[in-house]
Design goal:
Blueprint: H1 4-19, H2 26-44, H3 49-63
Amino acid sequence: FDNNHAERAIRPAVMIRKNSYGNRSERGADAQAVLMSVSRTLQQRGHAPLKTVVEALNTYLATGKLPPLPAKTTPLG
């Protein structure tokens, strides 16, 4: 009995942590966890993570409010 799907889902975060010699503080670890969670959620919903985060930050700068996470895309758009 295993949870291979979940293990594969967290692998990118583990590899980033390994290649950067780990998180140097608890705050850094928390920041990485949040960013990886948002990134994976956006990928799973069919969005480009970097583009979507940049758009969200631009919206925040213009309005003072962060937009909600975008909905899951369909194959037709």
